């Protein structure tokens, strides 16, 4: 039995990972890249936790595992012109405020696949927050739309109960029996 939730086994093949990604709503190559990178991050943190290599590795693994277990893909789309951009590097608070003030929008946090310009040729999975309307992403932080978005939908009640962004932080801390973060 795996020690960690959503732990990939030695027998996990690319075909299995692709099937998992498709079951979570993957529709294109970018979705598969994002899912693969998330699985690889989770496995790296699991190994580091087992080896006691990083003091917070179990917590980091729990964060990614929570998103993998409870998340799904969302369709990337351009931000509607009637919704203004938020502050740079404030994705969680930008998205929360937008969801709080618009009943048609739902808050999501998880990971998005994005390019870092000239720094790297391959897009990278980055922790991120956004809102969705009719399952389509509205990203009010990044000027360029991400290649792929995978995350967990949260109700306003869940946001109030967790009290810290990204929500995956306090959820993972609870799983690890560690003190919760506060604003």
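Sequence proposed for the structure above (183 residues):
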């Amino acid at each position: 039995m795996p020690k960690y939730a959503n732990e990939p086994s030695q027998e996990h093949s690319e075909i299995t990972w692709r099937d998992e990604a498709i079951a979570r709503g993957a529709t294109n190559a970018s979705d598969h890249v994002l899912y693969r990178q998330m699985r690889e991050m989770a496995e790296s943190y699991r190994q580091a936790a087992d080896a006691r290599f990083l003091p917070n590795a179990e917590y980091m693994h729990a964060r990614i595992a929570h998103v993998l277990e409870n998340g799904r893909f969302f369709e990337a789309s351009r931000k509607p012109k009637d919704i203004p951009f938020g502050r740079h590097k404030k994705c969680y608070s930008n998205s929360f405020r937008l969801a709080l003030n618009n009943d048609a929008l739902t808050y999501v946090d998880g990971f998005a696949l994005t390019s870092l310009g000239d720094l790297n040729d391959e897009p990278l999975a980055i922790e991120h927050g956004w809102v969705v309307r009719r399952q389509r992403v509205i990203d009010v932080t990044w000027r360029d739309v991400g290649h792929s978005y995978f995350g967990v939908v949260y109700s306003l009640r869940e946001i109030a109960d967790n009290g810290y962004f990204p929500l995956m932080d306090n959820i993972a801390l609870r799983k690890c029996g560690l003190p919760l973060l506060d604003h």
